[in-house]
Amino acid sequence: MGSCNDNCGCQSDENIKKESCGGSCGCSSRGEQKKRDEALHLDSNTTSITSTTGKKFHIVVFGCQMNYSDSARIKSVLQNCGWEFVSRIDDAEVVIFDTCSVRQKSEDKVTGKLKELHPEQKVWITGCMVQHNLRNAKISANAKGKKIKGLMTSGNFVGTVETKDPAIMWWTNEEIKKWLKNNTINPDAIVYVNHAFNPMFFNLQKNNANVELLFRIDDTGFLPLMMRSLGYDVSYDVEVTNEYSSIIPQGTNQLMKNNTKTAFVPISTGCSQFCAFCIVPYARGIEKHLPVEQIVAEAKHHIENGVEEITLLGQIVNKHPQFVEICQKILDLPGNLRWLRYTSPYPTHYSDELLALHEKEERMCPHIHMPLQSWSTKILKKMFRWYNKEQFIDFVDKIRALSRPISITTDIIVGFTDETEEDFQESLELANYARFDMVYIGKYSVRPGTYAARKYEDNVNREDKHDRWDRLNELLKTISSQNNQQEHGTTRTIMVNRIEPDWIGGYSDNMKNVIIKLDKVAVTEQTQSRITNNAPKGKKWGLTSMYVGDRLIKLGDFVDVRIIGSEHFKLFATLDQ
Ligand code: SF4
Asked: Is the Cβ atom of 281 under 6 angstroms away from ligand 1?
């Protein structure tokens, strides 16, 4: 999510395992299920399923911040079931892949990663890849003129599944409550999610017998029931729910940043924009806005647990009708919230009220990531992006008129269908006008399942795409260098996100990368710990803290720095004493 179609930087590395299957997925050990069921105790008077043995699990997160937030919810549910999260993939009995579909290569990473696991490690797959394939299955079934046997409208997904029986995601909270109350849950009455995702599940299982479960992220609250159906010994003392968004992640988003100071809070799920190039609406379903009280409660929980930076998430985050109210209510919460961010907004949903909040409230970070994709009105129309050049100029002008400097970053796609040199020149003009601090440039590639894949020809050749990428990038380097020079001599607070033997890295409130080079003599002691999801590229180990003189600096710390130099995309600083 976040920057919509252009934010798929996978950060993860690791994963899990278990024993034989209990029968939901059609594997050979179905006979074991009865015994396992008998080992469980379903309390007829409460919503508790109790038992004793917890498994060790690990989650591999692919993709964007929304997936990290989702994974934190999965982690929370499994921990409530008595399972233990392990930070090393090798130690896990069950490995969960929270997948991304933004690009084909995101899905290829999953199949690649599967090969690295030990055959005894069980694998569960969730995330966009699962939902996108469900949708694709529907499309291909339609294309072949097959009869669609069921209409699924629960969760935030509207689509069809090819199954004769009700699938687990059809259950409502009321039904679950009734079944639990009457002790009438009958595992045989459940058509497991795996079957609903046929044929993807069976195709995956052909080569990877350890793939045990596919589930929609919206059904995370049902995991205890699925686990039980798979034959796991489940201890669950929290109400089973199909209201995904009401699950508050325990602790903070350590899956992503290895620190306890930052958290991602979804305020909406799905997207109804259906930009021509984008798979998100198919993978994540139609847009749903979460209730204000629930969002604020989640933020409160994080702040009470020490979080100091919150990022509100939504595919079009500022389209939430109460967006400004949500920001204000979170800023009013007691505690030590320092930074409030949000991603990704849409130009035509900006209100003057929101810009005024940026101006008056220091803790609203002075950074706006505004995915634009193009500046040619012709291309924007073709992309189904419903704004034009003039509207964006107006937006930039309003930001630049604020008394507080705001850094603007964006996403641009080069080489979209029918983009001519003249259209591209308009994007160059845009970069010059808006003085972006960063542009995430994507060379257009067809994403199967999207409108553009079905209706448009990918008619800009590879060389032109490369060439446009290079020219935009060169311009961007120049603009970024000029912008960064204006920061020299200023003091900033940064959040530490990288510790190396002779430098510390972090990012500022205006989302610039800051490097503090250290004299080795100053480093008196280092703590090396295994970092999994956020290890420096190519490494499995990283530093989590170090002493600089007598000052202890840890990942996640906020430290004050003085900017002493810069280059494009980077500021250099010294520690403020
Ligand atoms: S459809 Fe458009 S607005 Fe929605 S997530 Fe995709 S790129 Fe963003």
From this structure: yes
